[in-house]
Amino acid sequence: MSETIKRTISGIVYIVLLISATLYSAFSFKFLFSIFMVIAAYEFSKLIKLSKTLCISLSLIVIAAIFQTAIYLPINTFVIATALVIIAISAELFTTKKPNRSFPVKLIIFIGYILGTFTALINLPFTQDGYKPQIIIGVLILVWTNDTFAYIIGKRFGKNKLFERISPKKTIEGLLGGILFAIIASIILSSYFTFFSVYIWIASAIFVGLFGTLGDLVESHFKREAGVKDSGNIMPGHGGILDRLDSILFISPLLYIIFQIL
Fold first, then answer.
1. Among candidate residues 67, 63, 64, 8, the one with its CA nearest the CA of residue 36
2. How much is the pLDDT for 227?
3. Which of 149, 153, 166, 255 could form a disulfide with 181 if both were Cys (CB 3.0 to 4.6 A apart)?
4. How far apart are CA 23 and CA 262, in angstroms?
5. Which one, of 31, 37, 57, lies nearest residue 115 by Cα?
6. What does the alpha-carbon distance between residue 162 and residue 217 come to, in Å, rounded to a whole number?
7. Is 227 helix (H, G, I), strand (E, B) or coil?
8. pLDDT (tens digit, 0 to 9) for every residue of the chain, 262 residues total?
9. Using CB atoms within 10 A of its CB, is residue 205 exposed (0-12), middle (13-18) or buried (19+)?
């Protein structure tokens, strides 16, 4: 079987599983992304050389807290702290030296980059009116639109490198093109998903384009440090769970804050 066929099949299975679990029920959505969290914890532990047992154990504790309503988990505080951590992580992109991280620093990065972002993502579709799977579907559409057109426009018109040291193929033209088409998609979405105004959807599209790209760069940064091409190999032709979710994970805390405020 050719690499292209493997990539196509695994991509279709991933999308069908993602959309089906999201639309079926709140429980199936939480359950699927809880599994993703554990896998991502394992993948990231290898990238930053942190104990796999510790990372998986911490992710299971957070999952238990998410599912057990009797356990109080300060979601808002956790997500705001996560947003601060990912901003700090982003600053590492501008360092030319390979960071020499201590154990406490690695642990804080893991908690923010994996546990905090997944917690924000899992809680993103829950509002005062209950579970709204359309929120996740809408955000995924924006992410996929941005990624697709950033690639197409970058490949066709890209001349100015965005961050060549980290990701040689990304261009400024691709970034702007992805954001433009994500905004167009957000305007269309606002006609169907009316629980948010068109302005919130447009703002979400801009955040997806900017911080989704930043999330991809940050994950590429960690992979370069580890000397690997992919975070894992669970999806033939696509890499690991982090490779598929890096964009939406990075923007989830920021979108969560926006949705909670507005």
1. 63
2. 82
3. 149
4. 24
5. 37
6. 10
7. coil
8. 565 676 677 778 888 888 999 999 999 999 999 999 999 999 999 988 899 999 999 999 989 888 875 455 567 777 777 878 878 887 777 776 677 778 888 898 898 889 989 988 998 998 888 889 999 999 999 999 998 898 898 888 878 887 777 777 888 888 999 999 999 999 999 998 888 889 999 999 999 998 888 888 888 888 888 888 878 777 766 678 888 888 888 888 888 888 877 6
9. buried
Six token digits for residue 227: 């000397």
Q: Which residue has the tokens 């405020």?
A: 261
79: which 2 tokens? 């997500």
Which residues lie across from 131 on neighbouring strands?
126
Query: CA 152 → CA 64, 171, 174, distances in Å?
Result: 41, 11, 7
Buried b / exposed e across 8-38, counting CB within 10 Å, b at 16+?
A: eebeeeeeeebeebbeeeeeebbebbbebbb
The first and second tokens of residue 53, run together, are: 């047992």
Give all strands (DSSP E) within 109-175, no chain letters. 126-127, 130-131, 161-163, 167-171
Give the relative orientation of helices 198-226 and 133-157 as an angle to the nearest 10 degrees: 60
pTM for this predicted structure: 0.88
Taking only the tens place, the pLDDT of each residue in 50-107 is 999 999 999 999 898 888 754 555 677 777 778 788 788 877 777 766 777 788 888 9
